[in-house]
C-alpha cells in the first residue's frame, strides 16, 4: 500500500511540473491522471497541499471548453489628455484606451497623483463612483469606462493623472497608464494684437 501511494504522489508531482510549461494541448490527458489521484486518496483521508489543489483546478481549466489563459490579455493601455494644455475654467477629457481579449472588464480607475477620483465598475450598480477631490468636478453623466470629463478646471489640477484598468476572470491582471495635464490662463486679446 505504501509503495502504491508513493507511486501516485510521484506521478502527481510529475504532472504538476509539466503544467508549469504552459502546453495547453497536453492538459487533456493530465486531467485524467489528477482525477484518478484525487479519487484514490480521498478514502484514505490523505492530506493534499494547497499547491496541488491549485494545480488540479488549473488542469480542470485546461481541459474545459473555455479559452486558455495564454489567450487572455490586457494590452495597449494608454491615457490621453484632450486638450493637453487646457484653459482655466474650461473642460478637459481624460481618455483611457485599452484592449481586452478573452476576459471581461472588472474596473477602470482614474487618479490625480495618488488619489482616486473616479471609478467605473460594470459589475456594480451604479456603475460609476465619484470621489471628492478639491478642484475636480466630474461630469458623471458623460463619464464611463473609457473617459472622464472634468468641468471648470483650475490651476491646481496641473500635474500627473493616471488610469488603472483591471481585467476580471480568468485574467485578473492590472495595467496603469500615465499622462500630464497643463492648465493655462486665458490669452488676452490685446496680447494677440501686439504679436
From TrEMBL:
<dbReference type="InterPro" id="IPR013783">
    <property type="entry name" value="Ig-like_fold"/>
</dbReference>
<dbReference type="InterPro" id="IPR003599">
    <property type="entry name" value="Ig_sub"/>
</dbReference>
<dbReference type="Pfam" id="PF13895">
    <property type="entry name" value="Ig_2"/>
</dbReference>
<feature type="domain" description="Ig-like">
    <location>
        <begin position="67"/>
        <end position="184"/>
    </location>
</feature>
<protein>
    <recommendedName>
        <fullName>Ig-like domain-containing protein</fullName>
    </recommendedName>
</protein>
<dbReference type="InterPro" id="IPR036179">
    <property type="entry name" value="Ig-like_dom_sf"/>
</dbReference>
<dbReference type="InterPro" id="IPR007110">
    <property type="entry name" value="Ig-like_dom"/>
</dbReference>
Amino acid at each position: 500500500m505504501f509503495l502504491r501511494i508513493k507511486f501516485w504522489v510521484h506521478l502527481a508531482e510529475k504532472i504538476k511540473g509539466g503544467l508549469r510549461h504552459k502546453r495547453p494541448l497536453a492538459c487533456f490527458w493530465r486531467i485524467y491522471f489528477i482525477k484518478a489521484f484525487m479519487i484514490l486518496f480521498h478514502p484514505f483521508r490523505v492530506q493534499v497541499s494547497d499547491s496541488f489543489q491549485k494545480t488540479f483546478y488549473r488542469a480542470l481549466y485546461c481541459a474545459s471548453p473555455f479559452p486558455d489563459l495564454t489567450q487572455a490579455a490586457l494590452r495597449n493601455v494608454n491615457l490621453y489628455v484632450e486638450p493637453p494644455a487646457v484653459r482655466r475654467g474650461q473642460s478637459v477629457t481624460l481618455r483611457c484606451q485599452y484592449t481586452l481579449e478573452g476576459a471581461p472588464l472588472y474596473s477602470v480607475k482614474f487618479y490625480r497623483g495618488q488619489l482616486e477620483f473616479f471609478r467605473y465598475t460594470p459589475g456594480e450598480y451604479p456603475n460609476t463612483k465619484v470621489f471628492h477631490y478639491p478642484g475636480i468636478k466630474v461630469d458623471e453623466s458623460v463619464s464611463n469606462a473609457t473617459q472622464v470629463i472634468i468641468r471648470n478646471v483650475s490651476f491646481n489640477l496641473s500635474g500627473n493623472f493616471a488610469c488603472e484598468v483591471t481585467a476580471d476572470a480568468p485574467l485578473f491582471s492590472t495595467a496603469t497608464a500615465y499622462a500630464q495635464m497643463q492648465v493655462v490662463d486665458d490669452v488676452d486679446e490685446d496680447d494677440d494684437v501686439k504679436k
